Amino acid sequence: MRREPRIVAFCCEHSGKLAAGDESSSAALPDNVGIISVPCSGSVQTIDILGAFRAGADGVAVFGCHEGSCKHVTGNKMVKKRVEYVARTLEEIGWNRERVAFFPVAAVESKVFRDRLAELSENVRDRIHGYEKCLGKQSESAP
Amino acid sequence: MNHYSKTVNSGVRLERISVNKRVLVVGGGMAGLETALKLTRLGYEVTLLETAESPGGSILSLSSLYGLSGESDLLVQSRIEAIKQNPAVRVLTGARLVGVTGTVGDFRVEIEQAGQTIENRCGAIVVATGLEFGEELPGTGSPEKTISHKELERRLVDLQQSETNRSRMPSNICLIVEDEGVDSAMFSASALKNALAIKRLSKSSVFVCCDNVNVAGSGLEELYREARSEGVVIFRLEDMRPQVRETRTGLAVTVKDSSAAAPGGWQGLIEIECDLLVLPERATVPADGVSLQHLLNVSCDSDGWFQENNVWAKPVESNRRGIFFAGGCRGNFDVEDILAEAKGAALEVHNLLRHGKRLVPVGRVAVDASKCAVCLTCLRSCPHDAIEILVDDKGHNKAARIIDIACEACGICVAQCPANAIQMLADQFRDQDVAVSV
Amino acid sequence: MIVAERKPIAEIRQMLESHRKILVVGCGACVTVCMAGGEREAELMAATLDLVFRNDSKCFSVDCVERQCEPEFLDPLTGKVNANDCVLSMACGVGVQTMAAQFPHVPIYPGLNTHFMGRPLEQGLWSETCAGCGNCILYKTGGICPIARCSKSLLNGPCGGSVNGRCEVDPDNIECAWQLIYDRMKEAGTLDLLDEIMPPKDWSDSAHGGVRRVVREDVML
User: Fold this and answer.
1) Which of A33, B209, B420, C170 has its CA 20 to 30 A from that of B162?
2) What pTM, to 2 d.p., does this model score?
3) Does domain A7-135 have CATH number 3.30.70?
4) With contact defined as beta carbons under 8 Å apart, do B296 and B100 qualify?
5) Distance CA A89, CA C44 (A)
6) pLDDT one-digit tens code per residue, C172-199
7) ipTM score of the complex?
8) How far apart are the CA of A49 and the nearest CA of chain C, in angstroms?
9) What residues of C are in contact with residue B419 (Cβ under 8 Å)?
10) Inter-chain residue contact C38 with B418, CB threshold 8 Å
């Protein structure tokens, strides 16, 4: 049985959260995605991202405002650097660095939001299935 | 899909914090004067700083560029008079801001005047330091044949006064309206007005080159049509900076205007022969402006104008609560806009200080002093200057502290702290929240 | 302050491979400030190791003390240390050794490489500033240390490898200390101090002279 990748999306409440829409919006997000709303993408800590992986997430997305449009001026820049740090740490431990990514998005860009989530899911899904196939069994998510 | 929203924690409480109702306006030009006047009408006491020996600002020397020809004196003089007679405004000329500490509601400023340092306290600061025009022109070109818009203005004034000079007007005049770092809004109006004036005063041919003629001001659309109907030729500057080369008789300016392109490959490169080339001089924040940015710890855009070019940067607001910008220092050039901004800034100040006290949520973000290593990371990272280092009575550093009245609860400091010493009580998510979400 | 950096994960992994219960201990002093081993970094380390050893049944716990170089701060850890198979110390070399002295029967692994005494040039960038040579001559060199900041620790001016103010050892990252000294002293108007020729350094006061001690009998209990 193929398992859907579990994605955690940290969403800035000024951009990502709005682009995600709410439960009543017509294009509902898939069940495998968990949204965590934050006051600024810059408040997402490195430990939160690693914590998400530790808790069983297969992929982590951070949605923040576009460059130059952070309500708190430098929040999105800071979190991008932390995402890069996590990506390099993942590489260092033998994991695929594409499991974590920062996506700039504006409040109205619902489609972009969904597209990016889909991209991340795809990147991650291939890995899970490849690993499982190679082990000939279902297992925890693979590096 | 799981949505995880903020958990409001009862650890946050509201406090009434007193704010100083005095306002500091930095800059005594059009914007500064208008802001000060509006503030007094709203009942505030104002300290107005001006580095020059008398207020008035750059509009006094640039009146015709603004298209006001002579009216500017009236506009400014009447305001200066009103300020001088108003006991609620303390005007300090020959004065500069040299130090700012504190936060919204309680700024402590140091002003230098005639070698003395004056200390002042205020609840809000409005920066209206205006702009100045550089003398250097972009590109090369011989000085006799290449002049600035300001210089053209001056010559036109001479022309109007003397009949004999009119016949000596160069036969072909080319006005370039924009360049790197110079917005078309700056010179569109004056270029059209001057082009029209040249056509009416002489037999010269006039060419105006501009990527987008900015007619977003009252009367400019009509001015544009008038200029064109009286024979001013307007070319578009597309993609390419105009190339200037010297010819035997004068200058040749090459511009690209694809609307003039013919089918079959011609790119629309047009060479304009002219005897006089008018180039846009760069407007910048006055030299003092750069140090003002660091003094106040506020953002500027890539051209040096105050206020980030950011969708959240509402007019007159800065990244620091209690500090506002108005007028030319924001790269604004239109007089009506500047006056509107000045009034707007005064109203924002009023919004902030009106009750003499502000209801502030306290404790949304808090530092655990026992864990704080005073590494200064949070202080450096805060985009709103809402963190200070507490000192004890002997002046020793104790710990960082969040200044609640300026804090925007963005959580950046929380994320940056290497000692986990800062917590955000509201909007908090923890490991178990993440786990549930997964 | 002391500037250190986290060891590569691969190396730490090897250290911890054979242990099951690991206590990661951070330090609240220098390594907090240089973002290498404070409480936050200790947590990050534990989280990362959790992912590294995902399919093994290892157990990581985290703690942090004010300073790992003081026995009084380590006493409260005793219970936790004994409840684990080993400790991964996120302190500088001093802290690791103090832990090892306090808990001789528990393997104490260093999670960091301790580099130098230095200062931040900007947030996130630290540079070596003091070599602990034991005989400070900063008043003679405009407040810039040629021992620590000159690649050759020269005492009487630059060598021929000083080009455009950069050191030939690593022009991209190292400024020529003597250029800096000259510029600083020129601005201060104290260039005449450089006329004094400094004799060959007596290195016996530095690490080269053997293990050093500092004693203040008047404060001893």
Assistant:
1) B209
2) 0.80
3) no
4) yes
5) 10
6) 999 999 999 999 999 999 999 999 999 9
7) 0.83
8) 10
9) 28, 32, 38-40
10) yes
